[in-house]
Amino acid sequence: MKILVLGAGIAGCSIVHQLMAANQGLEVLLIEQRAGPAQETSGHRLAMAHPQIAMKKTKLQQFTQLGNRLAFQEWAYAQKYEGVFQPMTDMEWRSEAWILEQFEKIGITPREANSLDCHEAESLTGIHRPGIWFKEGAVYDLPAICKMALSQLPTEHCLWDQKVGAILQSKGQWQVLNTRREVITQAPILILANGLGVQSLLGSIGISLPMRAVRGQLSRFLIQKDSYIAPKLPRTALRGNGYCLPGRLLHTGQFTWEIGSSYDEDSRDTEYWQSSDEGNRLKGLDLIGANHPHQAELSSYESFVGVRSASKDRLPLIGPIPNEDGLLIATGYGSRGVIWSALGSRLIFAYVAAFLADEARLRTGFLAGASPELESELASSVSPARFLAGALAKRTSNSKPILPVS
Ligand SMILES: Cc1cc2nc3c(=O)[nH]c(=O)nc-3n(C[C@H](O)[C@H](O)[C@H](O)COP(=O)(O)OP(=O)(O)OC[C@H]3O[C@@H](n4cnc5c(N)ncnc54)[C@H](O)[C@@H]3O)c2cc1C
To answer: What is the pTM of this model?
Structure first.
């Protein structure tokens, strides 16, 4: 069976890897508008992942915890720093017993995280504050993951430099069309993993999916070694309101320090913004408990800018489009692409297996217990069907797609 995957970011590459690993004779074809993998939002080489700590067990927390376990096991080769510390303020910190109680409530195991008092934290991280140490937390290089994920895919199965302008279903086949509306290729199964682009391609068959663009900028700063900040730089990655990496000493004797990320809703601008660097400076100083007047010691050096795709409820959109046999999507990964992609690829594979087994319930857009890792309730909470039921009822026709003007 031939399967088309659109988009070579971490979402699409993980899906390709999962479909190939299943070894079920599937012929996977990857289509991407850029010349290679990880050239848009997944061009990020310093993405952090850790399980989520919440006051109660929410779907977001559960999906994140499950996803993080898989990412941590599978992508050890792409980890740049292992372990993440979440410092807590005096207001947040109650007692170690209280933290352990929270862990128990939401199912965080001692293998995943433990609490540190301020002395333990200082000796491990350089930060004299109590908090949570995520043992199963790390900073990942997304292009390295994408490259490795595609290593088993024959080169002739990668269609680079192919921008898809529209999709169309014809006689049980999903056709992908270029911007001149010529058919590039077709297959019974099409998986759209092209970030925000999913929205316009669904629009080409008359389906409106609510999604938001959220611009983000990660800043790299340069710091002089005789500055006030230099001795306060952390030795491990930190998270809180934003995140930062350990300070790194250059051969020049200066330090570099990465802090992220801005969260600019409804912007798709990929240019550098000075205001994002300013915001990131303050986030970094708060994380290490330093005073804001020292922000001038952080000189802007380099930055990474990307545009996240987000859903209305902050959960991803992973699963089939109801009543459109063989059409699946994996998008809306927001700020958690590294955390959710391995799990997302498992879920997509479970849907593909259900499709191949011709399970009628798939037509509703929900999966019933086909994945050992995901209870159907959790799978349903990320299904695109949660946003589409009303929209589909309003649609007039499936047979006349509205093609975008190229
Ligand atoms: C500043 C910043 C910081 C972040 N920090 C973290 C973090 O710490 N931890 C974390 O987990 N996540 C983080 N993220 C989020 C993470 O980077 C994203 O969730 C992830 O990269 C999204 O992957 P994707 O595959 O969905 O999208 P992309 O990587 O954007 O991939 C989509 C692909 O589809 C292709 N495409 C689009 N439209 C078409 C078309 N019509 N035809 C052909 N190809 C098409 C694109 O070229 C692209 O290659 C951060 C994001 C930003 C911007």
So the answer is: 0.93
pLDDT tens per residue, range 125-170: 999 999 999 999 999 999 999 999 999 999 999 999 999 999 999 9
Q: Is the CB of 192 under 6 A from ligand 1?
A: no
Q: 3-state SS of the chain?
A: CEEEEECCCHHHHHHHHHHHHCCCCCEEEEECCCCCCCCCHHHCCCEEECCCCCCCCCHHHHHHHHHHHHHHHHCHHHEEEEEEEEECCCCCCCCHHHHHHHHHHHCCCCCCEEEECHHHHHHHHCCCCCEEEEEEEEEECHHHHHHHHCCCCCHHHEECCCCEEEEEEECCEEEEEECCCCEEEEECEEEECCCCHHHHHHHCCCCCCCCEEEEEEEEEEEECCCCCCHHHCCCCEEEECEEECCCEECCCCCEEEEEECCCEECCCCCCCCHHHHHHHHHHHHHHHCCCHHHHHHCEEEEEEEEEEEECCCCCCEEEECCCCCCEEEEECCCCCHHHHHHHHHHHHHHHHHHHHCCCHHHHHCCCCCCCCCCCHHHHHHHCCHHHHHHHHHHCCCCCCCCCCCC
Ligand 1 centroid to 42 CA: how many Å?
4
Domains of the chain, earliest start first: 2-43+144-211+314-394 (3.50.50.60), 80-140+215-308 (3.30.9.10)
Residue of 14, 40, 181, 348 to mutate, ligand 1, most atoms within 8 A of C-beta: 40
Question: If you measure from the C-alpha of residue 203 to the centroid of ligand 1, how many angstroms do you get, rounded to a whole number?
Answer: 20
